[in-house]
């Protein structure tokens, strides 16, 4: 339960490097964070991000956020990181990386400690958070985020900062986002082969929400759905905090495979058909609009086949409804449909499909809008769409990571049986 990333200092300029490892694309961005004056919009952000290096390429060796081929993943990451390094004119040693793999999920833990009528001090906050830590740690899962979402004194909830207040009992609710340890270790292994250290891990749904939600939405309650290549993730924000995160292993690439199988065309052709002609909402002229298709294995001199545009819609719509229904059922099972306050924001590459907001409105029975990354300067034109929301959110994360619980670090011992000098002496004895 440790936030390893040091928060950016107020009033100071700093450089940050982020790496988005997705199932269909890998993107690396190096940005300069400069202090910004507090304005009405995006009040939670203390700095403005200006991109100085950008690298982008197709993904390889990664499936549904899980590393499936270390060699291929290493080559794909090296080429993208090299592109960003050349554009920025510097060499990276560590990056902030997103996590979608390992059955991403979240739980809310509560704990309380006795105050005996004393004032709440920093040590009391650490005591109650350590109590949550002991309850939430499991050997097979690693904690990515531990966000205190509300304190209570003597049963009185809704307290933001209890320091200095008096009471008998201090309680806290913490939203804990975790993932399977082995999936994250494989990710770490690939980056070590690329000579990169992981500066911090951030859950993909959290990053997407940070980039696309405005302050009022996050305060009132909202759910953000990120339609990725092979995974769809959802995050719920309430009272300005992340309170829930989840992921399902179905995404935009599954629509492409559905089209390829049903129309018997190549995956590349199916992707082109989905991008140019795909819609999940039937139109009046769809039966008359004919699309030329080239069947798999057909020679170039053969005449291409033709299908009506409505056929494409009938293939794509059931898959989209399946994704939205799965998210709705999961959120209803955890009570999050009431927390999100009748509002959804759609983002991610697959969210740009024609008619998706209308279908989502009908399936979820909620208000729906499409979200794009906000407040990031210097991004190339191609990276300003919803497909790059996660990358933008990772640039915002260093500005808000101070909200997370951080394990207090012990003072470093220099002498003694496990001190620094003793370890150096042992190394000298064993090495020479």
From TrEMBL:
Membrane topology designation: Peripheral membrane protein
InterPro entries in the record: ATPase_NBD, Cell_div_FtsA, FtsA/MreB, SHS2_FtsA
Pfam families in the record: FtsA (PF14450), SHS2_FTSA (PF02491)
GO biological process: cell division
UniProt keyword annotation of Iron present: no
Similarity comment: family membership: Belongs to the FtsA/MreB family.
Quaternary structure annotation from Swiss-Prot or TrEMBL: Self-interacts. Interacts with FtsZ.
Name by which UniProt lists this protein: Cell division protein FtsA
Species of the source: Devosia psychrophila
The encoding gene: ftsA
């Amino acid at each position: 339960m440790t936030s390893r990333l040091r928060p950016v200092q107020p009033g100071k300029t700093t450089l940050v490097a982020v790496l988005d490892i997705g199932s269909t694309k890998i993107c690396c961005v190096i940005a300069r964070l400069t202090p910004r004056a507090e304005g009405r919009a995006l009040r939670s952000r203390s700095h403005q991000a200006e991109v100085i290096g950008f690298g982008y390429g197709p993904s390889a060796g990664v499936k549904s956020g899980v590393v499936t081929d270390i060699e291929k993943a290493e080559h794909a990451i090296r080429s993208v990181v090299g592109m960003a390094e050349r554009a920025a004119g510097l060499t990276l040693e560590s990056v902030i990386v997103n996590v979608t793999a390992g059955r991403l999920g979240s739980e809310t833990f509560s704990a309380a400690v006795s105050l005996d009528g004393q004032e709440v001090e920093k040590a009391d906050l650490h005591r109650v958070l350590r109590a949550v830590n002991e309850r939430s740690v499991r050997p097979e899962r690693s904690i990515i985020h531990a966000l205190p979402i509300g304190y209570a004194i003597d049963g009185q909830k809704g307290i933001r900062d209890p320091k200095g207040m008096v009471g008998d009992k201090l309680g806290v609710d913490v939203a804990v986002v975790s993932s399977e340890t082995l999936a994250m270790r494989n990710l770490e292994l690939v980056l070590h082969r690329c000579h990169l250290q992981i500066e911090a891990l951030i859950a993909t749904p959290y990053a997407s929400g940070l980039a696309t939600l405005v302050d009022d939405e996050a305060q009132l309650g909202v759910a953000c759905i990120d339609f990725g290549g092979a995974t769809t993730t959802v995050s719920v924000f309430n009272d300005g905090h992340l309170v829930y995160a989840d992921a399902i292993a179905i995404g935009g690439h599954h629509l492409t495979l559905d089209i390829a199988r049903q129309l018997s065309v190549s995956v590349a052709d199916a992707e082109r058909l989905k991008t140019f002609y795909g819609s999940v909402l039937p139109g009046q002229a769809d039966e008359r609009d004919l699309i030329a298709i080239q069947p798999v294995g057909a020679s170039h001199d053969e005449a291409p086949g033709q299908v009506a545009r409505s056929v494409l819609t009938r293939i794509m719509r059931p898959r989209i409804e399946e994704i939205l229904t799965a998210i709705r059922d999961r959120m209803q099972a955890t009570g999050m449909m009431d927390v999100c306050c009748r509002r959804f924001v759609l983002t991610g590459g697959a969210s740009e499909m024609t008619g998706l907001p209308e279908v989502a409105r009908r399936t979820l029975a909620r208000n729906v809008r499409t979200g794009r990354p906000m407040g990031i300067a210097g991004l190339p034109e191609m990276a300003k769409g919803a497909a790059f929301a996660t990358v933008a959110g990772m640039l915002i994360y260093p500005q808000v990571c101070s909200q997370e619980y951080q394990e207090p670090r012990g003072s470093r011992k220099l002498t003694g049986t496990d001190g620094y000098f003793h370890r150096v002496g042992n190394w000298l004895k064993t090495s020479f």
